[in-house]
Amino acid sequence: MVVRSAGLLLYRLEPSPQVLIAHMGGPFWAKKDAGAWSIPKGEYAPETEDALDAAHREFREELGVEPPETEWAELGTFAYSSGKKILVFCGDGAGFTASAFTFGTFEMEWPPRSGRTASFPEVDRAKWMDLDAAREALVKGQRPVIDSLERALQELASA
């Protein structure tokens, strides 16, 4: 069965095109930067939940704030090499302040095979990045999302 996720990618055009992405939390990502960032997103079941509703839910859970009131456009579905698929919606985040986050948490056994459970933030920081920096920072399976956003923004500019 294919694992499906939905996420929200906020963009702003001033001072130059940027996107809001989040650094993944937990011990596996703590000392990594390149390839350790993600679009705020999470799993959902398409048979029981609308993808845009799920993307909003996950944004709230991961960042602890409401996504801005904006028009959301479906950017596309992107497949990871693992087979997982992520449906991404983009929206103009001009005026959205990337601060006052209260990151959601998850629990896992840590250290491995210790029998102890520890709690970690789902993401440990979020910030605006220009498109080239975001492309490098994102996990490999999400990098094509930036290319799609660039094309969509070029189409908007020429319309």
TrEMBL record:
Q: Which CDD domains match?
A: NUDIX_Hydrolase
| Residue runs in coiled coils | none
Q: Which Gene3D superfamilies match?
A: Nucleoside Triphosphate Pyrophosphohydrolase
The record ties this protein, via Pfam families, to: NUDIX
Q: Which InterPro entries match?
A: NUDIX_hydrolase-like_dom_sf (IPR015797), NUDIX_hydrolase_dom (IPR000086), Nudix_hydrolase_domain (IPR051325)
Question: Domain of life, per the record?
Answer: Bacteria
- Sequence ranges assigned to domain Nudix hydrolase in this UniProt record: 1-151
The protein's name: NUDIX domain-containing protein
Organism (species): Microbacterium phycohabitans
